Protein 1
Amino acid sequence: MKVTIFGIGYVGLVQAAALADVGHDVICVDVDSDKIARLNRGDIPIFEPGLTRLVQENHEAGRLHFTTDAARGVGHGRIQFIAVGTPPDEDGSADLKHVLAVAGTIAAHMDDAKIVVTKSTVPVGTADRVRAAIETVLAARGRSDLGFDVASNPEFLKEGSAVADFMKPDRIILGTDNDETEQLIRELYAPFSRNHDKIIIMDARSAEFTKYAANCMLATKISFMNEMANLAERLGADIEEVRRGIGSDPRIGYHFIYPGIGYGGSCFPKDVQALIHLAESTGFEPTVLKSVEARNKTQKTVLFDKVRKHFGDDLHGKTFALWGLAFKPNTNDMREAPSRAIMEALWAAGARVRAFDPEAMDECARLYSGRDDLALVDSPEAALDGADALIIATEWKQFHAPDFERIKSQLAAPVIFDGRNLYNPDTMQRYGIRYYGIGRADSGTGNSS
Ligand SMILES: NC(=O)c1ccc[n+]([C@@H]2O[C@H](COP(=O)([O-])OP(=O)(O)OC[C@H]3O[C@@H](n4cnc5c(N)ncnc54)[C@H](O)[C@@H]3O)[C@@H](O)[C@H]2O)c1
């Protein structure tokens, strides 16, 4: 089937490569000409496990094309996906300017019937706005005779395992009341729905809301657990024991109850904010969502507070080794990453940062170019030499079982601030390392607060 995807970011590129891999003929359109040029050279602009091979093979096989030529894209697919960004506007609402711009572009170039599908995460009612935007442009062209439909198909892939998630989705949500649209999208996704029927059909508004409700539920689990962690510290309990204790209840489950230094990334922070804004626009007070967001904001400073408590407010002359920059493992994405809040707080207090991340170094260099209080080094060990402490911000696999003797010998003083609870406080005590985790007693020192 011929498919066009507008917006070749984390979602659009993964979707495009996966659809091409099962045999569909996919054209990707983006306004970022550098990105398109890189993709046409086989250079993949994001890190996502399995993606490079998938893109290169399907590009070479002639099933995956990249262009900035919107007219070519519109002419290609009967189905036109909109997968552009929906960043937060100044008031926290989702900014739909890219989505509506693509709707206008499709309407400006279409010469036959199209099915326009919103894949971006968009507020409830966006399908109606996309429909209206297309109708306006078609009317201005005098082509109101052209048939089109608009459907909602929110994406649930996770950065870090995006390819696997797309290939084996838990569910495919499709918001449509049009039988022909349903049948075509079913055909498109049939290769990803073989094991059992993954497709859940509903109206477009419910589909749009399902995406926000899912992300907000997950953000709620994280903020709840972080609140329990902060409380555990004050009550002399160990949140890791509590996590195992509550996770064993199948109604709660082990997923998404790891305490840490707050959620980041391009989705949870903006989607929680957008749903708060959407709720308020209806006159409804979303008290749970507001608390989830507030807890997350304060959680991002929890580890720095421990640093300040240990070293004092003035960190001039101190250097901190930082392991992990990406907002989570297996991605190079640093949008809203907790590492950024930590680095910025350290710099504001006068400290220097020496950082390592397996994939996000280029992104970090791009974000903080020209800073002389940041050094990016090419191994975890290189970050340690003579540093006053080690801070862990991302739970990459390679940080899980380091050589603690080496850490001890390389640091100026053996102190670890672990924002991901990777290590056992008893083990740290055995090695003689002062250890600060989240929601548990500091090693050998009693409670941290
Ligand atoms: N990143 C995720 O894990 C994830 C998961 C599920 C849903 N989503 C949602 O999917 C959407 C896209 O997210 P992303 O992370 O892929 O974004 P992204 O920022 O990585 O990519 C968006 C792309 O859209 C392009 N673009 C902007 N305007 C355009 C236009 N008029 N025409 C063509 N291209 C245009 C940009 O140049 C960019 O390459 C967002 O709504 C997001 O909330 C993201």
Protein 2
Amino acid sequence: MTETNTVTFSPELVNFIKTWKNKPGNLIMVLHQVQEEHGYISRSAADQVAEMLDVPLATIWGVISFYHFFKLTKPGKHNIQVCMGTACYLKGGQSLIEELSKQLKIGVGEVTEDGNFSLQAVRCVGCCGLAPVLTVGTEVFGKVTKDEIASIIKQFS
Ligand code: FES
């Protein structure tokens, strides 16, 4: 955790945190909301949550590292998620990841140098009939072949 830039919470987020301050289970709710607004949990955001909820920073890191849902690094402008659920895996999900890695020059969990793309492997995204599936932001691509990867990347470049 080396990132030190200070992030500013929106007034809505600050209100949300105040509303949840004394409720049970508040930490996870608040972290979800922070990630929703900022795309990840930065060091600065974690510091602010610790102060506002009056909980130790170590508790926050404990929650973040336990739940894989939370991200500690800023995702790319376009987050590419390749489904590695059973159906997609059997239909070549791994080869899509390899091709994306090759073309974007990043591994899973990394962000391209220009910040435009990040790459993730995810569990079943719920449209197995379209396997193998990948998503770019909210857009879903089904029955994807390795040969289509270049043109998918191009659409978002
Ligand atoms: S396994 Fe990929 S969508 Fe279900």
